[in-house]
Amino acid sequence: MSTSSLNIETPHETRPFKAHGHLDVVTLEGFTLGRGVFEPGWRWSEDVKPIAGTESCQTRHTGFCLSGQMTVRSDDGTELTVSPGDVVVIEPGHDAWTVGDEPCVLVDTGVAAYAVSD
């Protein structure tokens, strides 16, 4: 049995959004974890859509919220607001935006291909 450890404070990669934040990414033995910092004013359709090139986010997110708030609107119109301590599964096909004047920080296991620019 092997045991491995890395620290998110020294990520393998930082993926900047167009504006309003970034995603720190660590990959360890085939497992990818991201810490997204979504600053006030961040909105997927403005800050990540130009990177993704899709009409809505097509990534399945699984993770939890450390701080701040984010509202997610699915393509079918349903909305969910994520708050500190919430554990979430967000299916592909959504827009999202930061709520309020505090950055939303989310830890997400569904980020291997998220916000990757060519």
UniProtKB/TrEMBL annotation:
The lineage of its organism: Bacteria, Bacillati, Actinomycetota, Actinomycetes, Propionibacteriales. It comes from the Bacteria. Gene3D superfamilies: Jelly Rolls. Residues 61-108 form the Cupin type-2 domain. This is Cupin domain-containing protein. CDD domains: cupin_DUF861 (cd06990). InterPro entries: Cupin_2, RmlC-like_jellyroll, RmlC_Cupin_sf. Transmembrane segments: none annotated. SUPFAM superfamilies: RmlC-like cupins. Pfam families: Cupin_2.
